[in-house]
UniProtKB/TrEMBL annotation:
Name of the featured protein: Fibronectin type-III domain-containing protein
Transmembrane regions listed in the UniProt entry: 515-538
Organism: Rangifer tarandus platyrhynchus (Svalbard reindeer)
Span of domain Fibronectin type-III: 23-118, 119-220, 417-510
PROSITE patterns named among the record's database cross-references: FN3
Membrane topology: Single-pass type I membrane protein
CDD domains referenced in this protein's UniProt entry, alphabetically: FN3
Subcellular location, principal: membrane
Keyword annotations of the record: Glycoprotein, Membrane, Receptor, Repeat, Signal, Transmembrane, Transmembrane helix
Signal peptide per UniProt: 1-18
Amino acid sequence: MWAWILWTLPLLCKFGLADLPTKPENISCVFYYRKNFTCTWSPEKEANFISYTVRRTLCYLHENDTCNSTSENGSSCSFYSRLTPPDIYIIQVEAQNAYGIIKSDITYWDLNTITKIEPPKISSVKPVLGLEKMVQIKWTQPVLAPKSSTLNYTLRFRAVNSTHWMEVNFTKSCVNEEEAYNLTGLQAFTEYVVALQCVAHKSRFWSGWSQEKMGITMEEAPYGLDLWRILRSDKVDGKRLVQLLWKKAKGTPVLEKVLGYNIWYFPENNTNLTETLNTTNQQPELYLGNQTYWVHVISYNSLGKSPEATLRIPAIDEKLFQCIEAMHTCLTQDQLVVEWQSSALEVDTWMVEWVPDLDSKPLAISWESVSHTRNWTIQQDELKPFWCYNISVYPMLQNRVGEPFSIQAYVKEGVPSAGPVTKVENIGVRTVTITWKEIPKHQRNGFINNYTIFYQAEDGKEFSQTVNSSILQYDLESLTRKTSYTVRVMASTRAGGANGPGISFKTLSISVFEIFLVTSLVGGGLLILILLTVAYGIKKPNKLKHLCWPDVPNPAESSIATWCGDDFKGKLNLKKFDNSVNREEDRILKPCSSPNGLIDKLVVNFENFLEVVSAEHPGKGWENILGGEKNEYVTSPNRPYCPTVSTEIPPRGSQCLCPGVLEETCSEARGQLLPPAQGFGPDHLCEEGASNPYLKNSVTTREFLVSEKLAEQIQREV
């Protein structure tokens, strides 16, 4: 029984102690000068409601007072009265809840060591006249600060464009309300930000930082300039355009406010032609001749002038020296590095230019001088991503500028913004030529490594071919005849590729070569036939001549002129006394189909005929012979009778062509020569006469024009 009681008694005591509040610990007190005395402790918050009582004992006055607080208001309490520095306070904190009271340990606080004052208020930060690298800071003492005490100060400062703070410590006695401090060791013509805090002597609590204030140091005389130029190709009045560029020398701070620039320049071999220019423009343009020039530039302000910067402009025909053998670029984590190789050890200064490579007008050129090294670096954030930059390096030996070496670089590559525009040319049966244009520079976003041509037949499988970036056309082969295809081209960079618009085409059903082949075969056959014909004509010329040009009777050799008198009458009556009575049409003379012998006899040698007629009829007039007309056409007897064209000599009674022959005989002869055969009208005769192709242009069908002069000549002969 007693053992069980002894065992449960510690547990009951434990549960009883667990209901008491937590003992206050980590007590800290601060004396806010002339404002309050505040103490804090832990824990800061309690789960149950607890009331706190802070008991203060003033050692020098031997007085006690309390300050009450609750857990809801936090674990702190302030005394606003009976603040008697210097003194020592004894502090003890009591925590009480429904289950009891618990007290903290007793602590002792010397007011001199826990005094905290307000921060000072800076009134001005100004440069000191005549002192270039110093500013004077003025401030007002804190209102709630010991007047007879010494204060320790910390001054922090930084340049406006910097994030690094620097600090200066100093001590000031609280004699004057306004204090001042000269901050030295600064850069000239630089703006600074300053802040101030203080602490009472022997105290361990610093005031807060004052409000920041800015000021600028005095400027200095200008430093030297780095000078460069751009040689333009434009000319005005025969003079070349040179644009000057300058900036602060590398490594020198901007410590002055430049009021302007003085420029003077002259030909290398004639200083008497010096020209001057005063400007505020940092990129002025000069118009120089073709010879070598020297250019000098200085900057100035109210305090003085900068050292002189000199630049030599080479003559237009001067040959520049070369010494850079190779160049390459590489990217680090945050920098672009350009390195080059040169065998000229005497060259130790270089000028680096970089400018974006765009389709539009070039932007402003950036440049920088490099010495004692063969590489150049630039932060990547100073260059734009997806932009191509042209970087050129010029070697400089004393005052001479050499031939530049250039390279292109991207600080970051991306997928092209657009693909190539495709075109189809030379469409054949199984081949086609695909051409495309380069992507505009501002849309490439990187170096184009290759092009890929995708082509696909209608409802067929897609194929592709890849070529390098220097090729802008490709011939597709082994295509299907008379088939529709779709083709597109993709441009690829290191980051990826972009497809251009697709285009469709259809292969031909027959090629130009096939057309040429068929034409060649047909033409060749015709040529062979012609050659065989020529060979045959050479071998047998008479037969070929007879086939192409048949013989036509010569009317000049006709014997009809000898047919006169009874002989002519007998010849005309041959058909009349023919024994074949049953064949009546044999007695009819067909004018358009006479045999060759009869044609020869009927065709007249007109001059002989006229001579005969003139001899036998000297008394006859030419009017009777020629039908009473001065000029009349006489048609060959072989010519068919056509009523519409009357060309035959009309018969007039006794004016017969055959003298001495009776009129009846002539009439009978005419009847036999031109009988009114049934079915043979004038039109029929003309048609039959026109069917003889060999006599169309023969002399037998020619019309003879009997002129008036010929008649007079014959009459004189008679």
